[in-house]
Amino acid sequence: MTNNLTLKTAIRTALMGSVLVAGSQTAFADGIPPHERQPLFGDLHVHTNYSLDSYFGFNPNGPREAYHFARGGEVNLFASASPKLKVPLDFAAVTDHAETLGKKAICTDPKLKAYDSDSCVAIRNKSQSREQAECNFLGPQKEGCIQVTDPCDMDNKVCQVKTRDQWQNIQDAAEDFNAPGQFTTFVAYEWSATGNQNPGSFHRNVIFRNHNVPNTPLHSKLPESQVPDQNGEMIPSPEKLWTWLKSECTEENGCEVLTIPHNSNLSYGSIFREPENRGYAELQQEMEPLVEIFQAKGDSECRVGVGSNDELCDFEKRDRRQARKRCPKGSTLSKLPSPVQLEDSWLSFLPSRDARLYCVPICKENSNPRENDCAWPNSYVRNGLKDGLAYEKYLGVNPFKYGIIASTDTHNGISGATEEDQYNGHHGAADNTPEERRVGGVGGYLGTNDINNPGGLAGVWAEENTRDSIFDALKRRETFGTSGTRLKIRLFGGWKYADDMHRQPDMIQQAYEVGVPMGSDLPNTRVDEKTIPKFLVWATKAPNSTNLQRLQIIKGWLDKKGKTREKVYDVACSDGLKPDPQTHRCPYDQRSLNATVDLNDCSYSATQGAVELKTVWTDPDFDSSERAFYYARVVEYPTCRWSQWDVARTILKPIPNVPATIQERAWSSPIWYSPSN
């Protein structure tokens, strides 16, 4: 450990009151009652040029610049300056790739013998040798790579020293910019694991409570992170990461940590894979209270045709193909940049939709992602939450009891840069102009940038803007994620809520007193068999965006036959509309919604929609014998997508097959019900 437990931390540990539990008002964290918790917005997924892939993109910004930008400052990007944030962030964490900290440092230090190696020359000459530089970063997973000597293999001891030096610089930047009550930083890094047989990512961001952290970050290529697979090859293991972190972070040394998986949409099912045993499931639930539902590389909530028929699942998808159980064979994809023949795919034309969509079969059990081009159901958060209910029934523990956040995954060091009208890319030289954002570059499916987006924000309800208070909120899952705007959303559950509680001035205090907030288990304290749970759900619009369209609750449950199911309920509608009692949906027409936006200048109507939506909702389909979860989603009226802003400001034409508008949204963390709670 680099630091011992400080006197301040020791005193707080001894004197701090416990976090409020349902029905108790005896003690509050920091003396602040829970109904006075405030919404704070941050970004817990930020890369600087300490990450090799960020350095490839000519990003000039390091950790200090990232925090400076998060606090409202201006920084430089490749060949331009970045606009300042309209509103500074409340908190942030720099999460550079642990795997490449030493490589980048070695290859940029002319005093070291590895500096002139083929690998380091390729890395420094990234504009001429980007493909080879990416090979050095990705290793054997990238097909066609010409393998050169890894600079860390040339002198592993120097690499370890350089890694620790960079890690110390990251810590120093976090300490220097941390300002309790004004702006909070977290010491953090990314564990960037990619399997040998499974090309999907199962990366984790590792977030520490305070400055008490390990001497060096554990990365996925170290022996301590790996286990042998069925063929005897060593592969990264999240379980090994969690075990190592538990051994390094103890009560005695004042270190506390959590991990956050991200990009499950690109994980080929790795994030929500079946736990190996009960011990694995328990460790996952303990170490991983949160999941990232949205970021620059797409939405991971759900996908139409892959366990969901929810039309709002078709939002900022990294993979826009239509998922079906069976797909006609032998169709030529003539709409792609070059004709491609796919055995099990067909070109699907849908009105007002992407003409490049083609069908992709849903993966069968044990499908090999290197051999089967298919859609993975367990690559999406909602399906993971549903699977967690089944695992809980049979293992006695739910490994996927995740709270919800979002972040950016910026590789420019521009923490929280999520505004559609200010988007100038997140990948340096690859997407820094409107032209680059339309074609080629890193990121997009089939090698395009058009399906990337500005990313999202992490929201917490915390007593104050400090490390301890925010970390506590993350641990108890009283969190939410947004697709980029400053929407605020809350969800509470209880058995004794009055139907009109949402109209009472002390509704939040009541909600805590006789119920639980999002991120919690709903205690099974029913008075009798007729008692049905009620949920207080509340959302308010973002100051710099349009009005709210509707408020929803998504329910997932495990039925009596052991099958996971889901249902979407519109619980509050704007513009005087009410949910249909049969369909539970607001009677909106998508064409009329889109008509509220002027695509020529991206102005929108401010007369439609609501500034606030709130209600008390009773589950009409409640079955006390079935395990279930509930989370809320609020949706804005349409606004211009970043790609349409580029069109409105230039002579460029709209990007084919890309929607001109989007409906920004926010997701609450779930509340879980179990017959045994």
Q: Would you kindly provide a written description of the structure presented here, covering whatever features stand out?
A:
With about 675 residues, the protein is of the alpha+beta class. The protein has two domains: about 5-230 and about 235-300 and about 400-445, no CATH class; about 485-675, no CATH class. About 20% of the residues lie in helices and about 20% in strands. It contains 16 helices and 34 strands. The strands form eleven sheets. Strands 1, 4, 5, 19, 20, 23, 25, 26, 30, 33 and 34 form an eleven-stranded mixed beta sheet that branches. Strands 22-21-24-29 form a four-stranded antiparallel beta sheet, covered by helices on one side. The longest helix is centred in the N-terminal third of the chain and has 22 residues, at about 155-175. The chain is globular, with a radius of gyration of 24 Å. The model is unreliable at about 1-25, about 330-355 and about 440-445 (pLDDT under 50).
Layout of SSEs?
Layout: H1 7-15, E1 38-46, H2 52-56, H3 63-70, E2 76-77, E3 80-81, E4 91-94, H4 101-107, H5 118-124, H6 130-138, H7 151-154, H8 156-177, E5 184-186, E6 188-191, E7 204-208, E8 226-228, E9 234-236, H9 238-248, E10 257-261, H10 278-287, E11 290-292, E12 294-295, E13 298-299, E14 322-324, E15 331-332, E16 341-342, E17 359-361, H11 381-395, E18 403-405, H12 434-438, E19 457-462, H13 467-476, E20 479-482, E21 488-494, H14 507-513, E22 515-517, E23 521-522, E24 534-540, E25 548-558, E26 564-573, H15 590-594, E27 597-598, E28 603-604, E29 612-618, E30 628-636, E31 639-640, H16 642-649, E32 661-662, E33 665-668, E34 671-673
Parallel strand pairs: 1-4, 4-5, 11-18, 14-17, 23-34
Antiparallel strand pairs: 1-19, 2-3, 6-7, 7-10, 8-9, 12-13, 15-16, 19-20, 20-33, 21-22, 21-24, 24-29, 25-26, 25-30, 27-28, 30-33, 30-34, 31-32
Helix pairs in contact: 3-8, 4-5, 4-8, 5-6
